[in-house]
Structures are given as structure tokens and as C-alpha cells.
TrEMBL record:
<protein>
    <recommendedName>
        <fullName>S-adenosyl methyltransferase</fullName>
    </recommendedName>
</protein>
<dbReference type="InterPro" id="IPR006764">
    <property type="entry name" value="SAM_dep_MeTrfase_SAV2177_type"/>
</dbReference>
<dbReference type="Pfam" id="PF04672">
    <property type="entry name" value="Methyltransf_19"/>
</dbReference>
<dbReference type="InterPro" id="IPR029063">
    <property type="entry name" value="SAM-dependent_MTases_sf"/>
</dbReference>
Amino acid sequence: MDRPAWAPPEVDLDRPSPARIYDYMLGGLHNFAVDRQMAEQVIAVAPEVRLAAHANRGFLRRAVEYLAGAGIRQFLDLGSGIPTVGNVHEAARSVAPDARVVYVDVDPVAVAHSRAIVAEDDQVTVVQADVRDVESVLAMPELHDALDLKEPVAVLLVAVLHFIPDSDAPATMITKLMDAVVPGSYLALSQVTTPPQTLTPEQQAAAERYTKANPVAMRTHDEIAGFFAGLELVDPGLVDPARWRADDDKVGGMVSSFAGVARKP
Ligand SMILES: C[S@@+](CC[C@H](N)C(=O)[O-])C[C@H]1O[C@@H](n2cnc3c(N)ncnc32)[C@H](O)[C@@H]1O
């Protein structure tokens, strides 16, 4: 296929990426045929996945607004994704105009678009890095230029942990991140959960195709709750992202992920 002018040269146009599939599910434009094809295969057998993507994005916005309302002025958004409507810096600044944000993503398309959107913005920094290499992330000069780690920080790991298998020790990664920030900091995360119901053969086949390209670590409610060890979950706890401090209760259907926000005591 023709390479769009906005696609960084290192991007493999033949391999679907979680960032671009998610962008497509949200109605974004920064995806390729291979991503759309994969997304449509999943939507065809599990249309609720698209709703789940929107619900996750809604959780992200409400969590950031809550955190800014709680006095947080610094956000470290790990696995930040391709910018679409309602980015973290916009949500934070709707409450706290002086909020600073560091976006970190491993995907070159996500990084290129984030940089383009905030090129003239000295309150927002964009870095390409793999969050699994947490020591390197925490040592990045860009992070220290942008954030004062002597002041509270909100660490966001929203819809990214399921791309980090247990073999990469996500719980240890989170402990290291939260050890690096002062008391009064927060962790906000969401992650895909183990489906409560048996998948149909069609759903199973689509899931296998997706996870072959991008392995997904589904986790139970208890396993996800374990990521908040040593932290104080704020109300309403670890719940369906659509229900986390939602202003209406027009949600329902299958719970496909859990989301929560916790404070470091
Ligand atoms: C589903 S998107 C979520 C985007 C955003 N956080 C949100 O919830 O709207 C997942 C993002 O995590 C990124 N990601 C996956 N593994 C990562 C890793 N090891 N390090 C950094 N980013 C990663 C992907 O590139 C993708 O942009």
C-alpha cells in the first residue's frame, strides 16, 4: 500500500498495531488497512469491543479530571496512544490550566502524532519508550525536565497493562514507578479482563488472530487489584470503566475490563 505522508519510516504497514487498532475503534484516522481489517474482524464477532474502547477513553478523561480536581498538576501517561479527542493534557487543563503532561508510548505513529499535536506546547512532552524498561523511563532527562518528582505525580497506565505479559513482571514495574513518586501521588489504570462468558467459535478465532499479532494478557479482577498493592483505591474502587465516576448509568452489557484510581499514602 502507499505510505501516508504522516507515517514515520520505521512503521511496518503490514503489521497491525494495538495503538492504531484502538484509534480505529475510537473513530480516529491514524490507522492503516491492516489495522482496520483486524479491527473489523473483531467488531464483526464482538461489536461491544468498540463500546469498550469508548468506555475506556471516558474513564481516562474522568480519572484525569478527578486527579486534577484532587490537586495533581503532573501527569505521566504511559502507553498514551494516538491522540484523539479528549487527550490527557486537554482533560487535565480543563480543570487545572497549569497541568504538565509527559506522554510515553512505544508506537512510532502514536509518538509522531502526539508530537505534532503539542509541538508548540511547553507544558507537554512526548517520548518514545518501552514502559517495560522502567528504569530507563524513570531516568529519561525529558521526564525530569518536565516533571518535578518531589511533587505528586499521577502515573497513568490506561489500557496498556494487557500488552505486558506476566513474564515482563508488570507488578514489579508498577512498584518501581510508584516508589519513584512521592506520597500523595496516584496510579490510574485500566486493563482487559478475562471474559466472563464462553466465547463463540467465531469470537475465539478473532481473538486468536488478534493475539497472534499482539499478545494480550487478560487478567482477573483480583489480579488487576493486585497492581494497586500498597496504595489506597479511591471510590468506587476497581470497576467497569464505564461505571467509574460516570455521570449517568446508561451502561451495561459485558464487563470486558476493569479500571481504578489509587493514592500513594
Ligand atoms: C489501547 S492503547 C491506550 C491508549 C490510551 N492510554 C487510552 O487509554 O486511551 C494502548 C497503548 O499502549 C501502547 N503500548 C503497548 N505496549 C507498550 C509498552 N511496552 N510501552 C509503551 N507503550 C506501550 C500502545 O502502543 C498503545 O498506544
